[in-house]
Amino acid sequence: MKGLLTVVGLGPGDPRYLTPAASEALASATDLVGYGPYVDRVPERPGQRRHSSDNRVELDRARFAFDLAAKGAHVAVVSGGDPGVFAMAAAVFEAVESGDPEWRSLDIRIEPGITAMLAAAARVGAPLGGDFCAMSLSDNLKPWEVVEARLRAALTADFVVALYNPISSARPWQLGAAFEIVSEMRGPDTPVILARAVMRPDERIRILPLSEVEDSMADMSTIVIIGATTTRQIERPGGAAPYVYTPRFYGVRP
């Protein structure tokens, strides 16, 4: 039996948004490997082995998965959202580069999923309709000075900015520091979207002007999208939340 390792994106949480290809990979796997809450999202199947681990052992998890695949297992490494966006796919290839040379001969596949910024954008309109960038505010794997420099560069270039991993109990100050930088470079009426647990039962989405945003409004389940100077709101009647979109054209429409 030839081993196979597939990194599977589970999407934002609602099983309706899991791709058919990802579902097939999960169904055919002999072993599931992943962060505990993500493994728990996959329905149990008879005979399928499940290997859960903590959130901060991504490289160890990838190596464990390769050991299983090298012995002939068909392994699905599960990841929330899209595995290539601040998630397990990069850890898998880091393990390949630094690990057993025989792992390079294994069949490695990536099954994409809907990442948080796309799910959040779909809920409110089209805030990513123009140029945008995505950043992680976590300084666990890179210095805060790098995070700050990249954020300033993105704001200077007038991108819409999507912030992943905005805040946690172990990192309580970074989001506030990021908003201070944003306030220096964006107007107080800039739309900010705080989308928590998108497409899950406890979903909560707020659209606020930058001047009213507080870092206590977010947690690790929140994606924060900061509008560009061109991002617009369309007010709606009856107290409904506004639509938010960023035009594809920049400046004066041709």
From TrEMBL:
Tell me which InterPro entries the record gives: 4pyrrol_Mease (IPR000878), 4pyrrol_Methylase_sf (IPR035996), 4pyrrole_Mease_sub1 (IPR014777), 4pyrrole_Mease_sub2 (IPR014776), Cbl_synth_CobJ/CibH_dom (IPR006363), Precorrin_MeTrfase (IPR051810)
* GO BP field: cobalamin biosynthetic process; methylation
Pfam families with a match to the protein in the record: TP_methylase
Q: Which residues form the Tetrapyrrole methylase domain?
A: 5-213
Q: Does the keyword DNA repair apply?
A: no
Instruction: Spell out the coiled coil positions from the record.
Output: none
Q: Which Gene Ontology molecular-function terms are recorded?
A: methyltransferase activity
Cited NCBIfam families: cobJ_cbiH (TIGR01466)
Q: Which PANTHER family match?
A: COBALT-FACTOR III C(17)-METHYLTRANSFERASE-RELATED (PTHR47036)
Q: What is this protein called?
A: Precorrin-3B C(17)-methyltransferase
Q: What is the lineage of its organism?
A: Bacteria, Pseudomonadati, Pseudomonadota, Alphaproteobacteria, Hyphomicrobiales
